[in-house]
Every structure is written in C-alpha cells, then in structure tokens.
Design a protein that fits this description.
Layout: E1 6-7, E2 11-13, E3 25-26, H1 27-31, E4 40-45, E5 51-55, E6 61-66, E7 72-77, H2 80-101, H3 113-126, H4 128-132, H5 136-153
Antiparallel strand pairs: 1-2, 2-4, 3-4, 4-5, 5-6, 6-7
Helix pairs in contact: 2-3
C-alpha cells in the first residue's frame, strides 16, 4: 500500500496482515474501547506507542491518538498523501543535516536556522494546519527547536 515499515521521526507503520496488532485494524478492535465505532483505522504509531489513524468520519484526515489520554485525538495531516509527503520532507531534512553537519548532528540538535526553515516552509506548502495547529508535527517541530536550544546551552 506504499507505507514504509518505519520513518523518522520515530513512526512505525502496520503491514498488510490480518493480524489485529500488526495489520490495519479499527481502533476499537485493537484496544476494546467504548468509542464511536468505525471512526478510526490504525495505520501506525509514534515512538511512544500512540496510534496514528485515519479518521474515516472526517474526510480521512490523519490523527495522532494519545494513548496516555484515553486516545484523545490531535491533528497530524489532512490526508494520507500529505502524511507521506511530510515524511519525505522530514527525511530530506535529516539527510541534509547529517550530510552537512555530521553523523551525530540530529542527535545533538545541530542544525541551522536555514535548514529548519527550509523544511518548515516545505511543510507549510503541503499542509498549513499540520505545522500551525496543536498536534503531531507542531510538537515535533517544537521538540527539534527545544532540543537544539538545550544542546547549545549544554555543550
């Protein structure tokens, strides 16, 4: 179906399987939740285990569901196509930072304002809300800047 097994930043995707936990499944089937039925189709998760799902009752938007907060939804992307484009943009950012700033540059928050801004601008063109609204990508972009500030203050 075109999804990678995993992608930066710490996202893993399910596979084409009938397995309830390894394949594509409805959220309420995986977690036995008392929620609106047939609303979310889980396609992956973040590094903390919070599901990334298609909200089939809201124009197939992609939502990030916080498993620590009873699967409270947050915006991720307006479509699966936008999510995949964001993953490519982010991958290109990571590759640029590593190639130009060193092998450990991403781990140490060692990227320039120009590198960050170029990535952010590409994301804005694809899905403005994903960058500006509270949700997965906004938190990731804020985390990058926070990590960079920390490593600059604590060399």
């Amino acid at each position: 179906m075109g999804l990678p097994k995993d992608a930066a930043p710490y996202i893993s995707f399910v596979n084409d399987s009938e397995d309830l936990y390894e394949g594509i499944a409805k959220l309420e089937d995986q977690y036995y939740l008392d929620i609106e039925p047939n609303k979310y189709v889980v396609i992956g998760s973040d590094g903390s285990g919070s599901p990334i799902a298609i909200n089939v009752k809201q124009d197939d938007t992609i939502e990030w569901l916080d498993h620590d907060d009873y699967f409270a939804p947050s915006y991720c992307n307006k479509s699966l196509e936008c999510l995949l484009t964001f993953l490519l943009i982010y991958r290109n950012f990571v590759n640029d930072v590593i190639n130009n700033n060193g092998e450990d540059a991403m781990l140490n928050g060692n990227f320039t304002d120009e590198q960050y801004s170029a990535m952010r601008q590409r994301m804005l063109i694809v899905d403005l809300d994903a960058v500006n609204e509270r949700g997965f990508w906004k938190e990731e972009l804020d985390r990058l800047l926070s990590d960079r500030a920390y490593y600059r203050a604590n060399p």
